[in-house]
Structures are given as structure tokens and as C-alpha cells.
Amino acid sequence: MWHTPDCPQWTIMQIEWEAGSRRIKEQEAWAKEIFPAAHERLKQAAAAMAGTPAQPFVDALTELVQAQADTTGFVGLYQWVEILERHFPPVLPDPDHTTE
């Protein structure tokens, strides 16, 4: 679809794009400022849960958040899988157990 320079619909679209871009930049700046403190609170809460049945979940969440902190983008699916496999390994069949 083509718009002339004085098209009202085109002007509205440009305003919305600029507003959206501004919101994203504001959200990113806010997140970068807040993340370290929130990450520290998570680590403190995780330490308080040491030795509980929730330990594998807490460890996996803490490691996933650390992986996010270590990257400038998103944690890739392969990283999620590596972390989850480490904390929740698959239950393999017992080769010594036989059935009739």
C-alpha cells in the first residue's frame, strides 16, 4: 500500500511507530537499571531455600536468570535445554531390572 507524504493514515502510522520505539527504549532502560537488584533478591531467596524439596527448581531458575544476565539478547532454547537437563535429568531405565 502506498501513501502520499500528506496522507493522514501515513502520519498516524509514523506517530505510532515512533511511540512504540520510544516505549521499547524506555522499558529496556528501566529493565537494565532494575535487573541487578531483582537478580540479587532472587539469589538471596534461593539461598534461603537451600536443602528444601524445591532445590532443583530454585537452582534451575537461578541458573536461567544468570544465563539471561550474561547475555545481551535472549537465552537461546539450547541453553534452556542444557540447564533443564542438568537440573532435571531424564530417568533412564535400570538395566539390572528385568520384567517377566
Task: Show the helix and strand layout.
Layout: H1 8-48, H2 55-69, H3 77-87
Helix pairs in contact: 1-2, 2-3
Helix content: 55-70%
Order of helices and strands: HHH
Mean pLDDT: 88
User: How would the global form be characterised?
Assistant: elongated
According to DSSP, the number of beta strands is 0
Biggest pleated sheet: none
How many H/I helices? 3
Based on the model shown, name its key terms:
single chain, 100 residues, mainly alpha
Question: Would you give an account of this structure?
Answer:
With 100 residues, this protein is mainly α. It contains three helices and no strands. The chain has helices at residues 8-48, 55-69, 77-87. α2 packs antiparallel against α3 (77-87). The longest helix has 41 residues, at 8-48. The protein is elongated, with a radius of gyration of 23 Å. The N and C termini lie far apart (70 Å). The model has no long low-confidence stretch (mean pLDDT 88).
Give a brief description.
With 100 residues, this protein is an all-alpha fold.
